[in-house]
């Protein structure tokens, strides 16, 4: 299954995301609820930003795989962060973590800074939409 990347020249060349992905006609949509980088009831202390990002992305990918998909099936990702400065400071580590899990697949991505997340100690939460090929 192949996505058609939609990056109008008038919007400039994106780096690390796509402006849009057109899903194939025969794909099944998988809507993935927000997956936090830290759960309030977890033992120990919340990990650093990059580690929480990796943890949240791993949880998203666990759901995709449970539906019969793979990392390249992610069509859209929304990343919620409580500290945009921490996100920017962690960009190198975030990129390494992304590529380790996603390779060079870059879906349509939105980054949103929020004042807080439901789970205390969570610095990042990721929700996503995947398109899984074939019939159930």
Automatic annotation (TrEMBL):
- Gene3D superfamilies under this entry? RutC-like
Name the Pfam families for this protein. Answer: Ribonuc_L-PSP
* Membrane spanning stretches: none
Q: Which PANTHER family match?
A: BLR7761 PROTEIN (PTHR43857), YJGH FAMILY PROTEIN (PTHR43857:SF1)
> What's this protein's name?
RidA family protein
